[in-house]
């Protein structure tokens, strides 16, 4: 359908190879949002930083669709994607297993969502945020030219100012009201 795919992550400088891998799979550009102030962020602070960065990207090129995983691998809370959607006032589709169709004329998207007891078919207007289930899609491995392009590509590195962070009290440990008192296997 055309458009531009930007892969964005918040993390330490060591996250750059993951962004380059996404570029080798065909993404058009990559942005690493990194700043020492982000250390210790919980899901609330992380969603604030990522929403700010997406808002900054939107000022350059309209953002119609945001994809996230269904949950983070460190906390397994499934809160970052919905938090971003809420902050950006995007329609939210969670646990999506398949995109059925996109209607550019109607500015809408139809998806299949896994739910208890079956599959739901949902349709909403764009812009939207979709949390995708793992295994929903087969990754196309990059061709040799894509891998060379990814190795040479500029990965934009944004600190808190470049990412459009307006309130540093909402980032990192200071912006994280979550307190973990105990972790155990249920």
How would you describe this structure to a colleague?
This protein has 186 residues and is of the alpha/beta class. Helices cover 24% and strands 28% of the residues. Strand 5 (108-115) and strand 6 (118-125) form a beta hairpin. Helix 1 packs antiparallel against helix 4 (144-152) and helix 2 (43-60) crosses helix 3. The chain is globular.
List the helices and strands and how they pair.
Elements (H helix, E strand, L loop, with lengths): L5 E5 L5 H9 L4 E5 L9 H18 L4 E5 L10 H9 L2 E13 L4 E8 L2 E8 L2 E5 L11 H9 L2 E4 L28
Parallel strand pairs: 1-2, 2-8, 3-7, 4-7
Antiparallel strand pairs: 4-5, 5-6
Helix pairs in contact: 1-4, 2-3
How much strand? 25-35%
Distance between the termini: 45 Å
Given as residue ranges, the uncertain stretches (5+ residues, pLDDT < 50) are none
Rg over alpha carbons? 17 Å
What's the helix count?
A: 4
In total, the number of strands is 8
Mean pLDDT figure: 89
The major pleated sheet works out as:
5 strands, mixed
Structural class: alpha/beta
- With strands numbered from the N-terminus, the spatial order across the biggest sheet is 3-7-4-5-6
Overall geometric form:
globular
Helix-residue proportion: 10-25%
Order of helices and strands: EHEHEHEEEEHE
Give structural attributes.
alpha/beta, 4 helices, 24% helix, 3-stranded parallel beta sheet, 186 residues, 5-stranded mixed beta sheet
């Amino acid at each position: 359908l055309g458009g531009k795919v930007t892969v964005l992550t918040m993390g330490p400088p060591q996250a750059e190879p993951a962004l380059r891998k996404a570029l080798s799979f065909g993404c058009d550009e990559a942005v690493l949002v990194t700043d020492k102030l982000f250390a210790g962020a919980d899901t609330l602070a992380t969603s604030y930083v990522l929403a700010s960065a997406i808002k900054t990207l939107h000022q350059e090129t309209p953002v119609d669709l945001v994809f996230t995983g269904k949950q983070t691998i460190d906390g397994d809370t499934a809160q970052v994607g919905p938090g971003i959607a809420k902050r950006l006032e995007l329609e939210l589709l969670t646990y999506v297993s398949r995109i059925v169709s996109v209607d550019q004329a109607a500015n809408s998207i139809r998806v299949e969502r896994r739910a208890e007891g079956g599959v739901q078919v949902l349709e909403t207007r764009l812009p939207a945020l979709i949390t995708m289930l793992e295994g929903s899609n087969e990754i196309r491995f990059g061709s040799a030219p894509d891998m060379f392009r990814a190795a040479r590509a500029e990965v934009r590195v944004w600190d808190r100012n470049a990412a459009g962070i307006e309130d540093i009290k909402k980032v990192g440990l200071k912006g994280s009201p979550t307190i973990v008192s105990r972790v155990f296997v249920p």
